[in-house]
Amino acid sequence: MAIETELVTSAKEALAIAEGRLEPAAVFEPAMVDVAAIRKAQNLSQGRFAERYGLPLSTIRDWEQGRRRPDRAAHLLLRLIEAEPEVVARILSSSD
Questions:
Q1: How far is the CA of 65 from the CAs of 18, 32, 36, 53, 61, in angstroms?
Q2: Contact, 44 vs 52, CB < 8 A?
Q3: How far apart are CA 37 and CA 82, in angstroms?
Q4: Which has the closest alpha carbon to 88: 38, 52, 50, 46?
Q5: By the 8 A CB rule, do 61 and 86 touch?
Q6: Alpha-carbon distance 41 to 6, whole Å?
Q7: Is the pLDDT of residue 56 over 90?
Q8: How far apart, in Å, do the first and last CA atoms of the chain sit?
C-alpha cells in the first residue's frame, strides 16, 4: 500500500473514531502518578518543582488536584524524575 493511501485510510479512520462510528484499536491509559509524592520527596514547593523541571506551575497544580492527568510523555518524564531527580535536573539545566 502506498504511503498516500495509508495516510488517507488513517485520516478516515481517525474521523470515524472522532465521530463515534468506530472504536479505537487501543487507548493509552497511563498508570496514576502521584505527582505530589514525587515533589514532596524532594522537599520542593509546587513552584520550585515546576521551575526545576521546566513545567508550567498550573500543570503541576492540575495534576496534583486531579483536574488533569499527565499524558504519556509527561508520565515518562515524571517516572524519570522519581527515579533520578538530580540527573534529570542536571540534563535539563544544561540544555538551556
A1: 28, 13, 9, 19, 6
A2: yes
A3: 9
A4: 52
A5: no
A6: 47
A7: yes
A8: 43
Strands (E), the chain: none
| Global confidence as pTM | 0.69
- CA separation (Å) from 82 to 24, 35, 79, 86, 94? 31, 9, 5, 10, 19
Reported as a single tens digit per residue, the pLDDT across 10-55 is 889 888 888 989 888 877 676 789 999 999 999 999 999 999 999 9
Confidence category of residue 66, pLDDT binned at 50, 70, 90 = very high
Stated length of the chain: 96
